[in-house]
Structures are given as C-alpha cells and as structure tokens.
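[09:14] KT: can someone run the structure on this one? pasting the chain below
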Amino acid sequence: MFNRPTLVILVLALAGGLGLLAAQKLLSDPVPAAPQTRAVTLFPQPRALPPFQLQQSDGTQLVPGELHGHWTVVFIGFTHCPDVCPTTLAELARAQAQWEDLPDAVRPRVLFVSVDPERDTPDRIGEYAAAFHRDSLAATADIPALEAFARSLSLVFMKVPPPEGYPEHQYSIDHSAALAVLDPQARMAGVIQPPFDPDAIAADLRMLTEAR
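[09:31] RB: done, structure tokens below
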C-alpha cells in the first residue's frame, strides 16, 4: 500500500502524463484553418436550408439535391430591374468566364432567382440569365415559396407600387443586393457583399472548389 505522499506524487505524475498526451494530440492534429477568401465571407459553420422547390427556366423543379456537388452563388432580382440586376449579373458573368476550365461536374454555378413571378415567366428568366452567361441557372416560384427561400438565405424583397399616374404593371421591386453562397451540400455557407470584384469572386470560388 502507498503512503499518502507517494500516492499524491503518482496522481500528479498521471495527470501530467495525460496532459502531455493531450498536448501532443492537439499539436499533431491541428484544427484546419478557414480558407482565406477575398470576396466571400464564409460562416464559421454552414447552415442547412429548409426544403425548397423552385421552377427552373426549362420547366423542371429545382430542389436542394439539384445543387449538390457545386458551390453556388445565388442572386435574387427581377428582369425589369433597371440597374442592380443587370450590373450584378454582368459582374458575375466575368467571374464565371474565369472558371469555365473547371470540370462541369464541380464547376461553380450562378443561380438567378426572380422574385417577380407576376411578370417573369420561366422562359423569360432563362433567356435573361443566359444573355449574361450561358451556364447561369434561372428559377422562380410563387410569392410564398420565394419569401421562404429568400428568408432562409437572409435575403429580402418587397413589391413597390408605381408612381401615381403610372400603370399598375410598372411597379418595381426592392431586394437585397448581397449574394448568398451555398456549399456543395446546398447549405448556406457564406455571403458576398457589394461592391463586387469579379476577379476576387472568381478566385474564391475556384479555391473553394479545388479545396474539396
């Protein structure tokens, strides 16, 4: 049987040994550092999105599974937008041109979601998005589905009536200018805030794609 001083020494030695093992484990298995991005602000932990169902420009349904395997940049807007939407899609097209050499199976995607289903038919949004870049996806839905989808991405939109004396169909839509970034599991992984730098966006999405 150990006397008290000997027992204390053994306990301290055991504690010290366990601490050394823990330290060695931490040093040998460091936590991976977050990628250093210039345009994309990545969240510490990607956020799963609630189920959604949008209608693509080709008439097929866009559900979360359709976005798996790719990093996706999501932009909400409308085709009658006079400035923000065409400017943003043009800047994204410049980024898209810089990752065209990546394999189609993993190439980042741009998804334009029209929040103006009253005027923007699937055909119209498909033609509109493709005019900026042929690889762009386009989709829409009814207002409740669009509101839920936008809210899940921390984006907002609101219909603005036309000025007095103008026809009712000449309304506008206020909407978020930020871009949502989804990871290859279709989770909300980050955001891109304006002003946009196409070169930085292209470099970030390429790095994230190649780091998989």
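[09:33] KT: thanks! The first strand starts at residue 40 and ends at 47.
[09:34] RB: yep, looked fine to me
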